[in-house]
Amino acid sequence: MRRKIPSTSMLEAFESAARHLSFTRAADELSFTESAISRKIALLEEYLGVKLFSRVKKRLQLTDAGKSYSLMVQQSLDKLEMDTTLTMAHDAGRIQLELAVLPTFALKWLMPRLNEFNTLHPEVTIHVTAREEPFLFSEAPFDAAIHFDHPVWANATSTYLFTEELIPICSPQLIGGKHCRKPADLLNYVLMHKTGRPEAWSRWFELAGCPDARALKGPRYNMYAMSIEAARRGAGMALVPRTYVMDDIESGQLTVPWEMLVPGAKDYYFVVPEQKQASQAVQVFLAWLLKVAEQYRDVSEQVHA
Fold first, then answer.
1. Domain 95-161+268-304 coded CATH 3.40.190.10
2. Does 219 score more than 90 pLDDT?
């Protein structure tokens, strides 16, 4: 059955005119005459049976239907352009892996290690996209994800990597050295929170033996990367996954004011939908990922010891 889709030329003309609210500027952008743009939009309105533009005091405006349709058309054209570009960039001699990863995990843990994988497996191209929230594989162009466990992955295979461990960090300059004298001293500084973990600092102080209502106060950031950078700049104390700050601690940019790791509420998993489990790229990447995750767990055990 033939799809009910207007021509790309009509949609491009409409999208440009809607964005500029001007047939003249759309004509300049697309290298058409203004009358050609007007004609294409008239044909589109006829095809849809809906008025997309109106004129109020000689000024071009979108109708309500035009506003809604313009957003959908822009998104569709953007996706079509991206899909086309990705296809043009496809290298038939290599295998591809589209990977969704938690943003700060990608930046602080995966990317520093990924060059090792690229050296070992030059035949595989990894495309990494940051995704904060869980998603349905059926609605996203990914072969796999590194994420927390979640019910949305019900029809996928989740392979355990390691457990999140939270550790307090700050700038050495903030405390005039590397450590505080006792855990309660941290309460004298600004405590920075992860938006989705408002109770984390309270739990840390309870386990440290000094519960305090002040542990709930302080600014909140929706990404660990933000609080890590704020801590580096001396804005206060952050409680973050140790995986994200090992290099910063080793380099001396950050310090641990009180050495106490707290198991986080999350475990990291490599998640693969059923239809992608036989993928060569997935299998090769997973084998490497399990090896480096085990190395990380070994280091973590040494820290606890």
1. yes
2. yes
Q: How far is CA 127 from CA 111, 114, 146, 184, in A?
A: 11, 11, 13, 44
Q: Check: CB of residue 40 under 8 Å from CB of residue 67.
A: no
How do 191-194 and 237-241 pair as beta strands? Answer: parallel
Q: For 170, which DSSP code?
A: B
Dist. CA 190–CA 188, nearest whole Å: 7
Span 8-81 CATH architecture = Orthogonal Bundle (1.10)
Q: How many CA atoms within 13 Å lie on the side-chain side of 70?
A: 20
Q: Is the pLDDT of residue 221 over 80?
A: yes
| Identity at 186, one-letter amino acid code | L
pLDDT digits (tens, 9 = 90+) for 96-131: 899 999 998 999 899 999 999 999 999 899 999 999
In CATH, which superfamily holds the domain spanning 164-265?
Periplasmic binding protein-like II (3.40.190.10)
The three-class DSSP label of residue 124 is strand
